[in-house]
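tl;dr need the bound structure. longer version: we got a ligand (NAP) that a collaborator sent over and nobodys looked at where it sits. i said id run it. heres the input, straight from their email, havent touched it
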Amino acid sequence: MILEQFRLDDKIAIVTGANRGIGQAMAIGLAEAGADVTLVSRNPADATQQTIEKLGRKAIVICADLASPGSIETIVNSTIKKFGRVDILVNNAGIIRRAPFTEFSEKDWDDVINVNQRSLFLLSQAVAKEFIKQSDGGKIINIASMLSFQGGVFVPSYTASKSAVMGLTRLMANELAPHNINVNAIAPGYIATDNTAPLRQDAARNKAILERIPAGRWGQPEDLKGIVVFLACAASSYMHGYTVAVDGGWLAR
Ligand code: NAP
């Protein structure tokens, strides 16, 4: 029956950036569907862990800076040690820096590329090797952006990294599909989190953004729960390399 294909009972997921915002909501969504979860962030994702444990699922908290050497190994090894395997990877952790293109610093370029792009490549590579070793498939879900499709303003490293996420999603899908591994991405629209707080605090920007969203509201982190469960479950087993926008209609406009 189709609804049974949406269940994630006893699947093991790794979610990066699970301490707050979109990553927190997606980790809880996966647990609501039955998964146990490794929660990765710089600060301990204790609140996320408590919510997941209240659902009767297991969660471990890993504090790691994804930009630091060694973090990738720690995440994968701790997951295998605790749960014995891994089935789902959600590459969600991301940062943004804002400044006009002509003033944008090399540090703001490197910091963003290291977290949003380089760590996504390295963690996906390490988890894909585990999937291939386990030889029963797996799911990689990358968090892209409207700026995977559009140029944006004042965010050059963010736009570059999120455009790379969409391209890399396709490349990984091509190489990993023969191993029964699905690689897809989610492109959230404008979601109310810490990442977008400066936009909401700027009255003119906030008004312009809201007027352009057909749904007429900012998205909430919970708006991403359904799509992440779908891409993590058996119902999406013939989807490879696609980036799904969940954007209140922003791209359709
Ligand atoms: P957020 O509220 O700022 O949360 C970011 C999360 O990533 C936090 O849990 C943070 O950990 C973690 N993180 C950041 N840098 C890290 C690092 N070096 N190592 C480990 N963890 C790190 O952001 P969000 O809005 O939920 O965004 C989540 C993802 O969605 C990002 O990839 C973002 O680019 C993307 N996105 C967001 C929007 C939006 O409108 N909000 C739209 C499109 C795409 P700590 O909590 O410990 O700091």
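gonna send this back to them w/ a short note. Residues 2-246 form a domain with the Rossmann fold fold (CATH 3.40.50.720).
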